[in-house]
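Bench log, entry 3. Co-assembly request; chain sequences pasted below exactly as received.
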Amino acid sequence: ETGVTQTPRHLVMGMTNKKSLKCEQHLGHNAMYWYKQSAKKPLELMFVYSLEERVENNSVPSRFSPECPNSSHLFLHLHTLQPEDSALYLCASSQTGRYGYTFGSGTRLTVV
Amino acid sequence: GESVGLHLPTLSVQEGDNSIINCAYSNSASDYFIWYKQESGKGPQFIIDIRSNMDKRQGQRVTVLLNKTVKHLSLQIAATQPGDSAVYFCAEKRGGADGLTFGKGTHLIIQP
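Structure output for the full assembly:
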């Protein structure tokens, strides 16, 4: 384990469902991130939270809604997704002002 | 579009040989670079990093070279082993931004 835990590891959902992805870090970091990894494409930064405030939102559709209740937990709420949203969703954490980023193992999402 | 890219999607090497994986970036404001290794079913794992005020950094069996003149980054793996088989990504951090920008990745294949 890397210190960043993501659940569930796999998720299959219909386009009308609502689900949430969870990320928890045990490293004492104060910044957390959501990335999307699709086949044949680079990792795409979705959201950045620093000190529990969202500081970056890279034009992500509103059907993805992040939540960061504290510095150790990060959620990604999903609703009315499209099949093209199927991908590996990765969470990462870091300490602001320092350079190390640690990733979780990801949630493999399939939208049917 | 992306500013961090890799020259080859796939690199095949003989076990025991040295591997060199290349990456080009286009943003002169980037001040920090990381190489990640991603094995099947896992999240990206940190290998080595380098700041823009350096041109070379060595780790255990790995060396990262940074050429700011031509905006080129490379990862050298000495005496490649079967366990090195994975997809390797370079990533850059741009100035005050918190998130990393990734390239597409090179799949390193080790031949016996």
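Chain A is about 0% helix and 60% strand. Chain A has a mean pLDDT of 91.
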